[in-house]
């Protein structure tokens, strides 16, 4: 279960098959593996070895996949960095991960220059520049390094439990944590995707999300593990996505809900031939029911949705047929993943009751880097939790109710805002909605909806309240609505409800 060695195996089995397509270039397996080996030897020559950390601040491209596999062959830990972060957060990741090298895309030279001196100094000895030559003093040109390096397989003592990368969490509930992900976890995740999605050897994949994010990078690398072809894009563009699916006869793909929305908003999206898709999956955040229905109508029964996280990889999966039978469910556990729903005392809750979700499985991470306290807090008797709240039905299907931190208690009633948000998003004028608890002298907390309307639309509290009144119990209706131009989001696109709450709770000692 070693990802780096798997690429060499694929190159041996399929030397002339196309491995990677990026823009107007393509590489066979023998060519791609040779580039990966050249990079691995170059990194070794710059002093990186097993257990060292190499940060990556770049857009998606063939180089990102080369870095991922080269570090895997050396036992070096890759540290993908979200390029939408501000300089202080990037510096934190470099410092916290103890990175001693950095691969930098040309688009981020100005951002790199804005980092504090200590962050730049930490990686100065192994600074690689993508693009046309070094744009920074002391940097090494990526292509020049490869041209002057060797193609033979690197020799390193590797073990399935060796760390492959540090995946930094979104940080919506505090300082971002570095999740240690091993070869074992990634390869197990590959195998369970094959079992759950029916992915075959030799498939063609396109996953247009940024490669600093675990899911699109690993769905893409899965193709290389299985001897398939990976189509890569620098950025997501909905029209380009459909064009590439049609041109390359893409067979499986991963998108987040906002991508589905952008694709289905194109007036001519049905003019593109997407019949080659045998599996199209959504993840990253729950897909609203209206969008799910629209995606099913457009793409057919190939749609899946999964529940996963940086720390866990895939947890559950639901098929198109199951979506229609089990609306709002995220499906049943993936192969060899086991769930327990516990109350605050650690006792299992009955079927249909809400509890905190705990799990065990072979694709689980190895702990939070340099944070044993957070690691210990996330485990209970060997079972891991993300802090999400959910319930299981009598058939074993999981429903995500909310994160524990989002629960609202109003007059003694536990309210899970996602239920209200789901209804608001069905209103034809509503583009986005976040529901939070705000202080109330009688009820302790009452519900407030913060809403972004679709362009050109107008609405009112009364209109949305009445819309909810016909679809929700009385205590679930928002007691007020604020209309805003945009909702605060984390760098990975999650709505930051804590920032919304801060506007209404102020300096109050208690916020529940």
TrEMBL record:
UniProt domain AMP-dependent synthetase/ligase: residue ranges: 8-369
Keyword Ligase: yes
Gene3D superfamilies: 3.30.300.30, N-terminal domain of ligase-like (3.40.50.12780)
Pfam family, any one: AMP-binding_C
Keywords: Ligase
Superkingdom of origin organism: Bacteria
GO MF assignments: acid-thiol ligase activity
Domain AMP-binding enzyme C-terminal: 419-494
InterPro entries given in the database record: AMP-bd_C, AMP-bd_C_sf, AMP-binding_CS, AMP-dep_synth/lig_dom, ANL_N_sf, ATP-dep_AMP-bd_enzyme
Family that this chain belongs to: Belongs to the ATP-dependent AMP-binding enzyme family.
Protein name: Fatty-acyl-CoA synthase
Species this protein is from: Desulfoferula mesophila
């Amino acid at each position: 279960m070693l990802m780096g060695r798997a690429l060499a195996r694929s190159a041996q089995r399929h030397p002339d098959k196309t491995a990677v397509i990026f823009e107007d270039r393509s590489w066979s397996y023998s060519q791609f593996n040779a580039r990966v080996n050249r990079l691995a030897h170059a990194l070794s020559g710059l002093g990186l070895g097993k257990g060292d950390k190499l940060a990556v601040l770049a857009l998606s491209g063939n180089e990102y996949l080369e870095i991922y596999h080269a570090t895997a062959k050396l036992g070096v830990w890759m540290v993908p960095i979200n390029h939408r972060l501000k300089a202080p957060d990037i510096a934190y990741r470099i410092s916290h991960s103890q990175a001693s090298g950095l691969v930098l895309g040309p688009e981020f030279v100005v951002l790199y220059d804005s980092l504090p001196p200590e962050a730049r100094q930490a990686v100065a000895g192994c600074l690689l520049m993508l693009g046309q030559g070094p744009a920074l003093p002391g940097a090494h040109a990526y292509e020049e390094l490869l041209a002057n390096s060797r193609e033979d397989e690197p020799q390193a003592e590797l073990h399935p439990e060796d760390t492959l990368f540090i995946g930094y969490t979104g940080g919506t509930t505090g300082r971002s944590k570095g999740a240690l992900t091993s070869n074992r976890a990634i390869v197990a995740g590959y195998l369970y995707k094959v079992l759950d999605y029916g992915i075959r050897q030799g498939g063609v994949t396109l996953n247009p999300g940024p490669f600093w994010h675990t899911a699109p990078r690993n769905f893409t690398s899965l193709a290389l593990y299985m001897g398939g072809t990976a189509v890569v894009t620098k950025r997501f563009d909905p029209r380009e996505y459909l064009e590439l699916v049609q041109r390359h006869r893409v067979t499986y793909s991963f998108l987040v809900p906002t991508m589905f929305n952008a694709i289905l908003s194109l007036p001519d999206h049905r003019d593109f031939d997407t019949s080659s898709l045998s599996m199209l999956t959504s993840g990253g955040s729950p897909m609203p029911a209206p969008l799910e229905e629209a995606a099913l109508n457009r793409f057919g029964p190939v749609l899946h949705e999964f529940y996963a996280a940086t720390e866990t990889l895939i947890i559950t999966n639901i098929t198109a047929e199951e979506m229609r039978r089990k609306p709002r469910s995220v499906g049943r556990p993936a192969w060899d993943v086991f769930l327990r729903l516990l109350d605050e005392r650690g006792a299992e809750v009955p079927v249909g009751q809400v509890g905190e979700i705990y799990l065990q499985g072979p694709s689980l991470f190895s702990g939070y880097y340099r944070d044993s306290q957070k690691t210990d807090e996330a485990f209970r008797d060997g079972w891991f939790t993300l802090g999400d709240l959910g319930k299981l039905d009598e058939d074993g299907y999981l429903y995500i109710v909310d994160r524990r931190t989002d629960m609202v208690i109003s007059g003694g009633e536990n309210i899970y805002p996602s239920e209200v948000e789901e209804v608001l998003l069905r209103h034809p004028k509503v583009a986005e909605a976040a529901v939070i608890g705000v202080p109330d002298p009688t009820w302790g907390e009452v519900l407030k909806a913060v809403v972004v309307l679709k362009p050109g639309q107008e609405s009112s509290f009364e209109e949305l309240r009445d819309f909810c009144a016909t679809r929700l119990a009385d205590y679930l209706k928002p007691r007020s609505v604020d209309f805003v131009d945009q909702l605060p989001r984390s760098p990975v696109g999650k709505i930051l409800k804590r920032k919304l709450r801060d506007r209404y709770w102020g300096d109050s000692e208690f916020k529940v």
